[in-house]
Amino acid sequence: MFLGEYEHTVDEKGRLAIPAKFRAGLAEGLVLTRGFDQNLLLYPMPVWRELAARINALPITQPSARNLRRLMFAGASDLGLDKQGRIVLPPNLRQYATITNQAVVTGMDSFIEIWSAERWQTVLDSFADEAPALAEHVSAFGI
After folding, report:
1. CATH code for the part of the protein at 5-116
2. In a 10 Å sphere around its CB, with 0-12 CB exposed, 13-18 middle and 19+ buried, how is residue 15 labelled?
3. pLDDT tens-digit profile of 11-26?
4. Which superkingdom, per the lineage?
5. What distance in Å separates the CA atoms of residue 126 and residue 143, rounded to the nearest whole number?
6. Which residues in the chain show pLDDT less than 70?
7. Per-residue model confidence (pLDDT) at position 18
8. Beta bridge partners of 113
């Protein structure tokens, strides 16, 4: 289970330390890909395999299914942690997420999001205004 938010430096080689609490959950490998909100998504390999199977089951005749495949698979990188518990963020993904020297790693239970520090702050700031409407909206789902 991945929970919490952690700010880390991205070094000149694009290396980002993954929080120590998260590393055991990534021992079987991981996949890094583009997210939906100009962020990056980091999946443990077992979770990625399940997600990929569901995406691959979508009909290729639907434009939205093709676009989802492009978003999730075209920029994806199969990675591993180095001895210091870091991953290398590929340049194309750093550019997509506008990550320069600071990144925020957030636990999303079964996967991890990686944000530029600036973009994450914008997301947090929006919560103050949107929280009541969000609470009302998700109540329809029984949450």
Report:
1. 3.40.1550.20
2. middle
3. 999 999 999 999 999 9
4. Bacteria
5. 21
6. none
7. 98
8. 41, 106
CA torsion through residues 110, 46, 43, 5, sign = positive
Q: Which two tokens stand for residue 59?
A: 């009909």
Residue-range domain boundaries for the chain: 5-116
3-state SS class at 131: helix
Q: Is the sign of the CA dihedral 93, 100, 98, 41 positive or negative?
A: positive
Task: Return the SS3 of 24.
Answer: helix
**CA dihedral angle for residue 6, residue 7, residue 11, residue 13, rounded to 10 degrees:** 50
Please indicate, yes or no, whether the overall pTM of this predicted structure exceeds 0.85: yes
